[in-house]
Amino acid sequence: MKNVILGLTAVSCLAACGGNGGTTASGLLGADGSFLEPLEDARGGTANFAGTNNGYAYQVGMNASRSGFVTQAVLLDGTNLPAPSNGGTATMTAAYELETFEAPETDDVGLIGTRRSVAGDMALTVNFDSGTISGSDNGLAVSGNFNRTGTLEGTAQFEDMAGELAGDVGNTQAVGIFNGQSVTGIFAGGFVAE
């Protein structure tokens, strides 16, 4: 079982950030995959392969004082794809979604900004010989490496916002989560690929 969390907090109009990774998702998500403690003004989503707990959840919002944007992206508890193939290449179709919070300004309540929701299908090239995965669509680009157990780590980029990629790669499926930031915005999301 792989438990992965990507967390990114950006405060003071994205002037500082910190993150964590490799922490269990237990205690963050309810049985339905929703966050137990949603962020202020949060938007996000969850997705999984039908009939399984292999999937992800994410949210983009503000901290309780409304002084900083926050993202959270997690693999669902129990996500554990079969080990990847020992060789060859494959193309998987990844259904992805992401949320952004951009152009921060301060008003009398705290930070405000512009929201965007982006979703689509992205072709992922998976090379089982070299343990690499990559793809791009509509301003989103992901690139990473995975080991023999399928643990995925890499980078994600959405327009001018750069970030992290994590997840699980199997023989015929992959699950990924990502988040990142720039001086003008913050993003988070995920994909399920077959």
Please give a handful of descriptors for the protein shown.
5-stranded antiparallel beta sheet, Transferrin-binding protein B C-lobe/N-lobe beta barrel domain-containing protein, mainly beta, Porin, 194 residues, 8-stranded antiparallel β-barrel
SSE layout and pairings?
Layout: E1 5-11, E2 16-20, E3 40-48, E4 55-62, E5 68-75, E6 89-106, E7 111-127, E8 132-137, E9 140-146, E10 151-158, E11 161-169, E12 174-181, E13 185-193
Antiparallel strand pairs: 1-2, 1-5, 3-4, 4-5, 6-7, 6-13, 7-8, 8-9, 9-10, 10-11, 11-12, 12-13
Protein name: Transferrin-binding protein B C-lobe/N-lobe beta barrel domain-containing protein
Question: What report would you give on this structure?
Answer:
With 194 residues, the protein is mainly beta. It has one domain (5-193): Porin. Helices cover 0% and strands 61% of the residues. The chain is built from no helices and 13 strands. The protein has an eight-stranded antiparallel beta barrel with strand order 6-7-8-9-10-11-12-13. Strands 2-1-5-4-3 form a five-stranded antiparallel sheet, with no helix packed on it. It comes from Cognatiyoonia koreensis. This is Transferrin-binding protein B C-lobe/N-lobe beta barrel domain-containing protein.
What fraction of residues sit in β-strands?
A: over 45%
Characterize the largest beta sheet: strand count, sense, and whether it forms a barrel: 8 strands, antiparallel, barrel
Total count of strands: 13
- Which class in CATH terms? Mainly Beta
Please name the CATH architecture. Answer: Beta Barrel
Shape: globular
> N-to-C terminal Cα separation, in Å?
19 Å
- Spatial strand arrangement across the major sheet: 6-7-8-9-10-11-12-13
Counting helices, strands and paired strands, the structural category is mainly beta
Protein name: Transferrin-binding protein B C-lobe/N-lobe beta barrel domain-containing protein
Organism: Cognatiyoonia koreensis
